């Protein structure tokens, strides 16, 4: 099969022919019909993820059809249309038994601990636990756009943030994760404030339901601007970018008893930001991480999509070829194009 492969970090990947994957007894092989290009893939290519062994194929948010099935897979068959969370849970540990497959102690991750979906085919581990059947009405491009950013935002807003109608919610960073969070929080009935440094991203956030936007380059104090808008601070604030500045701004934007949800990855030299713990204690704030979403929680999200309350297709930026993905991947830190980029031609 054709795949995007990098043999060294921070060096240009190449498209080469590699061996087709074969399914493990508990797994399947999926023919990739669409796969998103995510900032997490860029972090991996930069060498920020210690789980990656070289040579490597990136890609972790994908949808397609099952091409081969392992002998122990009982709930899916060849030809089924599927997608997956970006975490392959084992299904057997205590976390999985409690329904928290997103923090499985034996998890693997496509595009990180094993080869990913920038290829014609990709293997899926523990398929009975991790595969999600796609509605016939959902196209592969939209399904691929759910795989990391949208589902992560859904869990962050709904399960971790427990956002309810009338809440004030701040979203710091309006990339794929942040824009997804804006749409989801708005659908629940929250009042959303979107923060970014790019006016195009903020314009898209307004079109997705943000009631107010803040260009962080045009105000002296982002948390103060948010507190002025909300008369005291937001109930829930998300760092959807993953940067020490947005992390601290998010915490400082909260009203007493508020919740900060860390969604964006803080890696390398930014991994340990200085947290204003005095405010956390004095205001009894909650600091909560959010890491993906379990396959069994997709039903709630898919129901909202099928009813029209959520429209992830509005977050799509452009579709590209496998060959074009190399430039897109390696320039992600410099490219601020709003929306999700999806590979559709292999």
Q: Main β-sheet, in a few words? A: 7 strands, mixed
Q: What is the helix/strand order?
A: EEEHEEHEHEHEHEHEHEHEHEHEHE
What is the β-strand count? 15
Number of helices: 11
Uncertain segments are none
Work out the radius of gyration. 20 Å
Overall helicity: 25-40%
Give the N-to-C terminal Cα separation. 10 Å
Q: In what range is the share of β-strand residues?
A: 15-25%
Shape: globular
What is the mean pLDDT?
95
* Class by alpha and beta content: alpha/beta
Description:
The termini are close together. Helix 11 links the parallel strand 14 and strand 15. The protein has 11 helices and 15 strands. The longest helix is centred in the middle third of the chain and has 21 residues. It has 346 residues and is of the alpha/beta class.
Short account of what is shown:
28% of the residues lie in helices and 23% in strands. It is α/β, with parallel strands linked by helices and 346 residues long.
């Amino acid at each position: 099969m054709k795949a995007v492969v990098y043999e060294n970090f921070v060096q240009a990947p190449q498209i080469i022919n590699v061996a087709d994957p074969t399914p493990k007894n508990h797994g399947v092989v999926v023919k990739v019909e669409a796969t998103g290009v995510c900032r997490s893939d860029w972090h991996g290519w930069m060498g920020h993820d210690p789980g990656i062994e070289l040579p490597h194929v990136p890609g972790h948010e994908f949808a397609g059809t099952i091409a081969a099935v392992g002998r122990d897979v009982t709930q899916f068959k060849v030809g089924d249309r599927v997608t997956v969370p970006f975490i392959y849970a084992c299904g057997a540990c205590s976390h999985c038994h409690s329904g928290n497959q997103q923090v499985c102690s034996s998890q693997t991750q496509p595009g990180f601990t094993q080869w990913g979906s920038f290829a014609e085919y990709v293997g899926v581990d523990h398929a009975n636990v991790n595969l999600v059947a796609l509605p016939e009405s959902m196209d592969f491009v939209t399904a691929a756009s759910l795989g990391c950013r949208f589902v992560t935002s859904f869990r962050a807003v709904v399960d971790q943030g427990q956002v309810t109608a009338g809440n004030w919610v701040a979203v710091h960073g309006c990339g794929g994760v942040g824009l997804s969070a804006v749409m989801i929080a708005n659908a629940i009935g929250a009042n959303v404030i979107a923060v970014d440094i790019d006016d195009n991203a903020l314009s898209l956030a307004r079109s997705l339901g943000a009631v107010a936007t803040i260009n962080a380059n045009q105000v002296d104090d982002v948390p103060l601007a948010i507190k002025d808008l909300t008369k005291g601070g937001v109930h829930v604030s998300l760092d959807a970018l993953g940067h020490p500045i947005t992390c601290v701004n998010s915490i400082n934007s909260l009203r007493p008893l508020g919740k900060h949800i860390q969604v964006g990855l803080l890696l390398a030299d930014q991994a340990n930001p200085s947290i204003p713990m005095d405010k956390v204690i004095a205001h009894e704030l909650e600091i909560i991480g959010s890491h993906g979403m379990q396959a069994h929680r997709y039903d709630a999200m898919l129901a909202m999509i099928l009813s029209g309350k959520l429209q992830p297709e509005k977050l799509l930026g452009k579709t590209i070829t496998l060959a074009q993905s190399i430039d897109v991947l390696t320039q992600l830190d410099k490219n601020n194009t709003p929306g999700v980029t999806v590979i559709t031609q292999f």
